[in-house]
């Protein structure tokens, strides 16, 4: 079963279970080039329940040693993963393009985002605020009863299962945000690679494994399983050694995993990022000022990466007025000029065509533009732009659903009261965007006040696509944007999903974790009696 590793960038078709290369025994599957329809070599061994068990066991065995590593070791490990990915960047980019059809520029940007994300979490781990160290010192003289000494910190939850996303082969896949934040938290990871890009998954997986070896970490700290069956994902989510799940994909897939996790004898959290239509609101002043520029920006955001982004703007609400027609005409022209790009897989292309068909079948919806037709693509994603009314939107739930691909609907709304009704009826969203000019601030203030209840990120005079990875970013939102609206899957706070707070009451100093001792040698950021401690590190605290 165990095979020698050929080279850091070799694609062998094997899965990575602890230190072993494992050929799944449930048959073979191949990646497909979505631009040409050609089958790509090699074949990948299908993993199933047996391999899920082996990987979960490996991760569990690694957990004690890995959670005990110092922040410095963990930070250096994350930085090494980034460096290992950079070392194979050329071969990696070629395989990503073959397997996804994404253009070179997008692949380069996503590679930089992935390595930047790993380095961000290295900084988060070193900084120490993630541990949420809090001290409420005891008071034996307090009346009527003494106050106990209570100290708190966060600990990792245990091994995490990560589901790679089809639409982000790097930044939301094997070494993407879920993996980086789980490893930063001290949690070993078992990744189920997305079956649309298994070669990409293996190259990145080998880079992570090289970093595991470099830092002499337990082999089960990282595992990668390849397969196309839902049984594999189900086996992982229901395995008793798996303690949390990170997922990006469809609402149906995410909900299936949420249900499977809830039915376990010991239920676990599933952090699923699922579907959003990312509404955009164009206010009258902005439209009067720059209708053509708004149309160009919207068309670019809607059709970039063939619309296969979780933040693609799928609905544009326009308060009806003299400039609405100008916007619709300019947006239609911009969409007609967009060439079809390949969709990520034949399955996603078929789901897109079905979604477009549904929009076409709605009587009150008019198709005003479609992208240039033609070209030899096997799975083309032709842009489609539709227009409807606020009344139709309120009456038909199908207009509220995500169509994953380069399609969007412009909704003409008669007045602000109707707009408010619409906002009240919107499902949870990853983002909501408002375009305004100074004269729109009254309407915008009311709108933003409602939208903060709907979306995880509010954007003014920009576009929702292109998610900055940083400390303040939120990529989350109420259901169905995510299954866990109190969290984010992008940015520094993503680490919180894989941590659990523990309070230590009246524990003697020599038995306390280092960061909770009065003489903490690391000087980590912490709170005393609910207030940040005076800065002991030069990185925070009272100023
Ligand atoms: P998906 O079908 O949800 O699959 C994502 C991952 O979850 C795959 O590894 C899949 O495994 C696994 N999975 C799905 N259902 C499962 C189940 N019932 N039990 C266990 N594992 C399960 O998403 P996709 O393949 O990326 O794309 C399909 C559709 O998802 C798209 O057309 C689009 O509508 C939506 N999508 C949305 C976003 C977003 O960010 N909003 C992103 C990507 C996709 P298998 O493939 O092996 O079954």
**Total tally of structural domains:** 2
The level of helicity is 25-40%
Radius of gyration: 25 Å
Give the overall shape, derived from the CA principal axes: globular
What is the CATH domain class of the largest domain? Alpha Beta
Distance between the termini: 58 Å
Strand order of the largest sheet: 15-17-18-13-12-19-20
Bound molecules: NADP nicotinamide-adenine-dinucleotide phosphate
Number of extended strands: 23
Class from helix and strand fractions: alpha/beta
- Estimated share of beta-strand residues: 15-25%
CATH superfamily of the largest domain: Aldehyde Dehydrogenase, Chain A, domain 1
The DSSP helix count reads: 14
Outline the biggest β-sheet.
7 strands, mixed
Uncertain segments: 1-6, 538-543
Averaged pLDDT? 95
